[in-house]
Design goal:
The protein is an alpha/beta fold. It has helices spanning about 30-40, 50-60, 80-90, 110-120, 145-150, 160-165, 185-195; strands spanning about 1-10, 25, 25-30, 45-50, 65-70, 95-100, 125-130, 135, 140, 170. The strands form 2 sheets. Strands 1, 4, 5, 6, 7, 8, 9 and 10 form an 8-stranded mixed sheet that branches. Strands 2-3 form a two-stranded antiparallel sheet. The longest helix is centred in the middle third of the chain and has 12 residues, at about 110-120. The radius of gyration is 15 Å and the shape is globular. The two termini are about 30 Å apart.
């Protein structure tokens, strides 16, 4: 069993407004990520947010595999969402994949490629790479959950890639689109042209 945690509780300070609910095509940015996760081979999808009422009002999705989780500690940084999502994941999960709520062009094909590599290897960490550089989403084996639960501040699990380089497998991806995120208004304008 593979779980996903979608990190959707950031403050979006550089954007100046809640970027995950901005319209992209016919739906909010976050819904694109959720739909790709639900269209993949993931067994459960946990979306960690700071605005549960807004999410439920603006995201038009129902699926038995989708769970919403409110992070009351979101102001203490991304690590709190990682930890909350890990605690919420099914106890039978062999691995948890962390996806960013502001990467709307991530596709089920990429998610499935990571899952396939994870299941066919003994790697502790599986991540995509573009031109040799590791990107998100990142899939962590259960063995690393205790280390993820020790994270603090405004960081996710990326430092574990360096720490466990020999146990990390990268899946080279041919294009950059799935890795484009929204940090500033210019990013949003670019994604509107691509979506």
């Amino acid at each position: 069993m593979i779980s996903a945690v979608i990190l959707a509780a950031g403050r979006a300070e550089r954007m100046g407004e809640p970027k995950l609910f901005l319209p992209l095509g016919e739906k909010p940015v976050l819904q694109w990520v959720l739909e790709s996760a639900l269209d993949s081979d993931l067994d459960e999808v946990i979306c960690v947010t700071r605005e549960l009422s807004s999410a439920r009002r603006q995201i038009n999705l129902t699926d038995d595999r989708l769970f919403w989780l409110l992070n009351y500690a979101a102001d203490r940084g991304q690590s709190t969402s990682v930890i909350a999502g890990l605690w919420a994941a099914n106890a039978a999960s062999e691995g948890v994949m962390f996806l960013c709520g502001d990467q709307p062009l991530v596709r089920p094909e990429l998610i499935n490629a990571l899952i396939e590599k994870f299941e066919d290897s003994s790697a502790w960490i599986v991540a995509p790479s573009f031109h040799g550089e590791a990107r998100n989403p990142i899939l962590f084996r259960r063995k690393l959950f205790p280390e993820l639960l020790q994270l603090t501040g405004d960081r996710g699990g990326r430092p574990l890639l360096d720490k466990h380089k020999r146990k990390t497998t990268l899946v080279e991806w041919p294009d950059e689109l799935p890795f484009l995120d929204i940090d500033v208004p210019e990013d949003y304008e670019r994604l509107k042209r691509l979506a």
